Amino acid sequence: MSEPKTLIAIVGRPNVGKSTLFNRLVGKRLALVDDLPGVTRDRREAHGRLGDLEFRLVDTAGLENAAGGSLEARMRAQTEAAIAAADVVLFMMDARAGLTADDERFADLVRRSERPVVLLANKAEGKAGADAAYEAYRLGLGDPLPISAEHGEGLGDLYDALVPFFPEQEDEAEEEPAPDDDAPLRIAIVGRPNAGKSTLVNRLVGDERMLTGPEAGITRDSVSVDWVWRGRRIRLVDTAGLRKKARVVDKLEKLSVADAIRAIKFAEVVVLLLDATVPFEKQDLSIADLVAREGRALAIGLNKWDLVEARGVELAAAREKLDRLLPQVKGAELVPLSGETGEGVDKLMAAVLRAHEVWNRRVPTAALNRWLEATLERHPPPAVAGKRIKLRYATQAKARPPSFVLFGTRTSDLPASYARYLVNGLREAFDLPGAPIRLTFRASENPYDRKK
Description:
The protein is about 35% helix and about 20% strand. The chain has helices at about 20-25, 70-85, 100-110, 125-135, 155-160, 170-175, 195-205, 250-265, 280-295, 310-325, 345-360, 365-380, 415-430; strands at about 5-10, 45-50, 55-60, 90-95, 115-120, 145, 185-190, 225-230, 230-240, 270-275, 295-305, 335, 390-400, 405-410, 440-445. A hairpin with a 4-residue loop joins strand 13 and strand 14 (about 405-410). The longest helix has 16 residues, at about 250-265. It is elongated, with a radius of gyration of 27 Å.
């Protein structure tokens, strides 16, 4: 299916229901929603649909009056960029709260952008809400549409208001869509708060796409950005920083963490970004272990490398820690880089593609069984209670991640240490560095065992 051309931005002051409408139109709970104002900070883009209209939809941070250089001012700049790029702007106000000075100020900003505007009076449930919506005429943005994003009311009127901006919709529907086999590679950028994840995303895409700053924990939503690197389509997902579970008490942070974990589960490759000045903290190890347990390919970025002086010594120490502290992803690539200066960023992307290739690798069954035979001859499994464990046959069940099944007798008694020995042997023999290898054992049935 071809990518929709029409870009629609949802804007308005904080807490008028922009993210609720965004989730309603994309058909998924993508954006975090809470009664607390100012939850959304970054621009989030997704594929939206209303009836037979398909479009790209952008959720934005609430517009606020703020001093230059502040976090709120940087959020406002992101929203203004979304307005400038949009084909249509949905300007939302809260019919329940009535018009505010901020509504009037930001309506003027949208009007000056000279973009087509559809005025939405949200939270207009019932007759009282609909009556209050007419106060929005004062904004001078045309007829207000009373809607309820939460309950799905008024979407028919919104559809009618948007139809004029889709003149080619009918013609495009008659065309046979070109097959799209080149699905984007899904990459999630994860790490502790303030590791530089958003700065890295901005550097990769060559645009101030994500909100950044010295404050820790700016990113809340997991925000995806489509991008092309050397002819390869990429979908980058910037995530909220992951802190120790015991420190996460705020409701919004819990939602952000759940969003980040979901991004890991849906990624193909995860980039774990470490702060080079304090690498391999306990939380870094916990995140890496989570990635391995989820079976994702892993590449590790050592960010803020521009702040490191004794580079040779620090890199050698970091590689030693990686091998010692994360044996479950032994051989994962560690790339020193700086999201701030751009140093090492291309090397990181090359490492990501190599990790993806390893994650997809398949081993021929004949080669696998030759390896098993040589391994058993060199180091057979230990006997348990005087009885030998026999491993007879191996096969690869699937890739993504590489998953192998070994058949034999008494496999349930095989010590965990020997299973680790086999995993390391597979990794070395078939060049599977960093891949979270899955190894399962199945016992051959005994035909003489008559179970009643």
